[in-house]
UniProtKB/TrEMBL annotation:
It holds the Pfam family TrkH. The lineage of its organism: Bacteria, Pseudomonadati, Campylobacterota, Epsilonproteobacteria, Campylobacterales. The chain crosses the membrane at residues 6-28, 35-56, 68-92, 123-144, 150-171, 183-202, 222-241, 286-319, 339-364, 408-430. PANTHER family: KTR SYSTEM POTASSIUM UPTAKE PROTEIN B, TRK SYSTEM POTASSIUM UPTAKE PROTEIN TRKG-RELATED. GO terms for cellular component: plasma membrane. It comes from Helicobacter magdeburgensis. This is Potassium transporter.
Amino acid sequence: MHRKSARILLLGYTLIAIVGALLLMLPAMHKIDDFAFIDAFFMTSSAVSVTGLIVQNTGADFTFWGQLVLLVIIQIGGFGYMSITSFIYLILRVKIDHSNRILLRDNLTLPTTSGALNFLKKLFLLVFCIESAGAVLLSMRFMLDYPLLEALWLGVFHSISAFNNAGFSVFETGLMGYRADITINIVITTLIIIGGLGYFVLLEVYYWANKRSKKLSTHTKVTLVGTAMLLIVAFLSVFLLEYNNPKSIGEFSLWDKILSSYFASVNYRTSGFNTLDLSLFKDASLFFGSIFMVIGGAPGGTAGGIKVSVFVILLLYAYHTLRNSNAVSVFHRRITQDAISKSFVVVVVAFLYISFCVMILSLFEDGGARGFLALLFEVCSAFGTVGLSMGDGGILSLSANFDAMGKLIIIILMLSGKIGILAFAFAVFVKKKPTGVTYPEAKILI
């Protein structure tokens, strides 16, 4: 991503969050007597970055119009504001110049600008169909418990929130009331997984499934296999570590243990819905959860984190290095040195960034009974735009206990996580001018 594109995207999402916060401050949008702007800004930043951390209860503290504003911001954040802007231009038959095509390419994480507009048209239709299908299925289930119009709103809201990996819910206790409901669990997790695969992968799989493409690209194969492996490992970590924990799933039946562990493992990766109280999880489970949240989803999708492809590339590089192999390959294709170098940079910058933010946050805030681990979990959740939290002792995120400085740190983490850590670094650091000086090599022992 170009530095200019990174700065424009970061500024754009920040402005959307600010405008959204100003809208939420209107009396018609909320039911809160003393509603601070920093809380409104936090909520809209969480929405536009499709994170899901909340400092006010979405269902109880906001009117229908306030919830609608949050849902629109979630959709803009998930699909990308440049994608939506470009689509409006296409409808109005306004010509899109080269600079905006570059922004669109970077927003969708496409390899080139060629065919970006055609890709956008097909993507918009595919996203609409997936979200509509999810809304219909969820609405049908909610009709068993709520009047028709309310069930439709619940279905639409949770479908868009799930597909965009936002984790927002208009139920006061999230999805805890549907912990054992197979329909809600399967539909929500399926939408989350599909949204986290990345738009490029989604369209390619769609074409391949409809015989319009003969084979899948290496990127798609790596994303699908990497996602499946991480989901399995995440499921096993929750299931095995929490199996005998009476505070979480220890007292459940075997089926409920499997269902709850699966739901938690999917949301560890990319979204912030929860059917269990994570504050009751063991330290080992929360530590592994932090790692999964940092990894995140696939490039060009609705998820954050360092990305599945980066994680897989580094695993492959480590494997081939230990075997003393000259080239790193996967699916009979060689991985370029440029991809390996960028993956290393992403991980190093992410590690330093997360460490710095946790350290600074710990100076201002207290993690409560779980101490430092709670702060680490919150930071990893914000960075990965996941939205899971050990909570404030009630139904809000731990961030609800923070003062303005602590909330601002989490806001920066969410917005930087939205555009990606490498893009954020490009936006912050000034490019060094080439000097033309070449230094002799140095031998450093490893």
